[in-house]
Amino acid sequence: MSAQEERTALTSRLSLYERALRAPEEDALPDEPPEPEGPGLRGRKAAAAVRASLGPLLAGPDTPAALDELHRRLAELPVRTGPLVAAVLSVPLDDEAAARAIGRRLVRTGTARRSVSLGVALLRRLGGPEDVPCLVVLSRLRRLSRLAVTALERLDPRTAALRWLDIRVRGPELRPLVDALLSDPVPDVRELLIRQPLDARTVGPATARRIAEATGLAALLDRGPVDPRLLAQAARLLVRMASQQDYEAEVLHYGEAVAACDALVRRAPALPPSVGHAAVLLSLAVDLHSGPTHLLPWRDGQREQLLDALGALLASPAWAHTLSEAAADAPPAVRRRAAWLRHTAEQVFRAPEPPATRLRIEILSRDPADATERVETRFLIDGRPLVPEVFGRGSGNPPEYFLDRGALRAGEEPREVQLAEAWCTEGCCGALWVTVVREGDQVVWRDWRHPGRLPSGAPAPELPVYRFDAAGYDAELARAAGDDRWSWPARTTGRLLAAALRDRPELLARWEARFDWAGADYRDPDTTAVWFRGACATGSDEPGPQFVWRLPEDGTPPAERAAAGLRRIEREDPRGYAGPP
C-alpha cells in the first residue's frame, strides 16, 4: 500500500471533527456520499422523514448500534442537506435532552457531512456553552463553516463573529483588524476600532455586524471616557448594518443593537459638529424613523426618545451650520448632500401629523455620500415599516415607479404592484407584490405575493387584507407626490425626460429606437442617463443594441435641460451621440 493509499484509508475512518483537528486546511471530503438526485423532500415531508430517522434514538438507548442505524438512514434519506437542516430546526422534539445528546454524538463521530450537519443543527437549536469548542473546530472545514458559525451565533456571538471574520475577510483593508482581534493577547480593542477605516464598499452590512460583535461595541460605548472618534465609528457601523442594499438588514440580528443605539445617542453630544457627523447621525435617525432599526425590541417610548434626542442635537445652535445651504458654486455632490441634510432632517424630526389613513408613504435615503445607498419608498402601515418586516431582502422600489407613473393609484380594475424587489433580483430571491383595488369608499391591498420566509429562514408574518379610507388614501398619494425634495437636478431632468419619452414614443421611433429608462446615472448621480435600444436585426427576436446618452450636470434648471434634450432627439439621431452602457 502506497503512502497516499495508507493516508486515504486512515482518514476515511476519521470523523469530520477529527479531520478538522488534524488538518483544518483540508476542504475535500473524499468519502462524502452524494446528495440525493432531484429536488428531494422539503418542508413538512422533510420534517416527517427527519423525525422518523431520529425516532429510534429518541425513544431508546443511545447505543453504538442505534447511532450506526441513524447514519445509515441519513445516507438513504431523500432530503438534501439544506432542507435537512431546515427540518431539524422546526421538527417537534419530545425529548430535548435526548436530541441534544444525539447532536453532540453526531458532531464528534459523524464521518459524512449530512450526519454532522444534522448534529450541528440540533446544537444550534439545543446546544449550550460547552458545545462552543467543538463547533469552532468544525467551522474550520469549508463545507461546514457557515452552518457551524450560525450555530455559534446563539451560543457565543463574539466567537461566532471572530470565526466569520476569519473565514470571510481576506482583503488588506480589514485583515489587519481581524488578525489583531484573533491574537493573544488582544491589543486595545478601542484603539483598533478607532483606527480602522470603515469605507462602505469594504464594510458591508454583514461585516459591520460582525465587527460590532467581535469588538464588543455596545460595552465599549457604555464604559470608560467618551471618545468622539469611537462614537463616530459606532454610528457608521450601526448605519451600515441597517442598510438593505444587501440580502438582509443585519441590525435585526445584532443582539446588542438596542443597547448600542441607546449608548451612542446618549453620548452623541460629545461629537464635534461637522457635516460628516451630522450625516451619519441623520442616517441613523432615518433608520430609527422608518427603516429596519425601527423594528428592534425597544422599550415603550425608547425609540421615540432617541429620535427626539437626535433631533434636538442637530437643531442646536452648535450644529446649525451643518444643515445650512451649500454655496451656489459648490460641486454638485456637495450641494446634493447639503440639500439632503436639510430636507431629511425636516422630514424625520417634524411633529407627526394626524394620519389621513393607516398608510404613510415616506421617500427617504441615507447619506448620499455613500454611493451604495439609493432613494427608496417606505410604506408604514399603522406606524410599522412594511418592507423590512415582511420581506427583508431589499428596500422599497424607487419613488418614480409609484409617484411619477401612478403605480399605486387605485381603480375598480385590480392592479398588481411590486412594492420591493430583492437586492440581487426578483428571479434570485423574490419580490413583494400586492394587488390594489378600489371597492366603493375603500382602497384594498390584498392577494400578497412574497417568498414566504425572511432571509433568516423564519416564516414571514402573515399579511392580512388592508383596507384604507379611499379619500385618505388618495390624499396620502397626493401628499407624497407633491413633495419631491428627495430628487436633485440630474435625477429630476431624467424624470422629465422619461415622462416625455413615454408620452411621445414617436420621438425615438423615427430613429428606429425604443426608450428604456432615464434618471440619475448609477455611476455618477450628478449625470442624467437616458437608456434606449436600437432596432433589432431583421427576423431576430433578440432585443436591439443598447445605448446610453449621458448629460453631466451643468447648472441649467432641469426643465430647461429636459426640453433641450428633447429638441436634440427631434433633430438628430441619438445613436450618433449616445454611447454603449
Report on this structure.
The chain is an alpha+beta fold and 581 residues long. It is built from 26 helices and ten strands. Strand 2 and strand 3 form a beta hairpin.
Q: Nutshell version of this structure?
A:
The chain is 49% helix and 11% strand.
Q: How much helix, percentage-wise, in residues?
A: 40-55%
Give a count of the beta strands, DSSP E runs of length 2 or more: 10
Rg measurement, Å: 28 Å
> Runs with pLDDT <50, length 5+?
1-11
Mean pLDDT: 90
Helix count equals 26
Distance between the termini: 60 Å
Give a topology summary.
Elements: H1 3-12, H2 16-22, H3 43-59, H4 64-76, H5 81-90, H6 96-109, H7 113-126, H8 132-138, H9 142-155, H10 157-168, H11 175-182, H12 189-195, H13 205-215, H14 217-222, H15 228-241, H16 257-267, H17 275-290, H18 302-315, H19 332-349, E1 359-364, E2 376-381, E3 384-385, H20 386-390, H21 399-404, E4 415-421, H22 426-429, E5 431-439, E6 442-449, E7 466-469, H23 470-482, H24 489-503, H25 506-509, E8 513-520, E9 527-534, E10 546-552, H26 558-571
Antiparallel strand pairs: 1-2, 2-3, 4-5, 5-6, 6-7, 8-9, 9-10
Helix pairs in contact: 3-4, 3-5, 5-7, 6-7, 7-9, 8-9, 9-10, 10-13, 13-15, 15-16, 15-17, 16-18, 17-18, 17-19, 24-26
Top keywords for this entry?
single chain; 581 residues; alpha+beta; three-stranded antiparallel beta sheet; disordered N terminus
